[in-house]
UniProtKB/TrEMBL annotation:
Alphabetically ordered keywords of this record: Lyase, Metal-binding, Zinc
Record protein name field: CENP-V/GFA domain-containing protein
PROSITE patterns in the record: CENP_V_GFA (PS51891)
Species the sequence originates in: Aspergillus mulundensis
Record-stated family: Belongs to the Gfa family.
GO molecular function, one term: carbon-sulfur lyase activity
Segments forming domain CENP-V/GFA: 4-120
Length: 139
């Protein structure tokens, strides 16, 4: 049985996750701000084998962001109908077979307590997050 589910705003895309997330990460980089359209991203990491799209695979589009600061291609997936940011993978996460799911599309957001906060050097002045995870200036 899935431990939680997720869906985009229009509900065309639905997914399921099994077990506990490996980690949760907040990122303040410019690309994550642009992709999310917000001040930062807060994502939950699952093993690829613990994540399954159960509806609307045909509605998912993936943007390959080239030339990221950490090198390699960042794959960023979203719903073609409503534009919700769904999940993404850095080159490193692709190698580790880990998928980073946007916590705003998850139905159990309590699973997403940050264990890692990156690009704090680019954090907006008014953002202050209360967690005990690791904080890095870059990534
Ligand atoms: Zn949608
Ligand atoms: Zn980022």
């Amino acid at each position: 049985m899935a431990s939680t589910t997720g869906n985009c705003l229009c509900e065309a895309v639905r997914y399921e996750m099994y077990g506990k997330p490996i980690n949760s990460a907040v990122c303040h980089c410019n690309s994550c701000q642009q992709f999310s359209g917000s001040a930062f991203m807060a994502n939950c990491w699952y093993k690829e084998e613990d994540f399954k799209v159960v509806r609307g695979q045909e509605c998912i589009r993936t943007y390959n962001e080239e030339g990221t600061t950490t090198g390699g291609t960042m794959k960023r997936s979203f719903c073609k109908t409503c534009g919700s940011s769904l999940f993404q993978q850095t080159a490193g996460l692709q190698r580790a077979k880990i998928i980073s799911v946007t916590s705003g599309t998850m139905n159990n957001r309590s699973l997403c307590q940050p264990g890692l906060e990156v690009w704090c050097s680019n954090r907006r002045d008014w953002v202050s997050l209360n967690h005990n995870g690791e904080k890095l200036d870059r990534q």
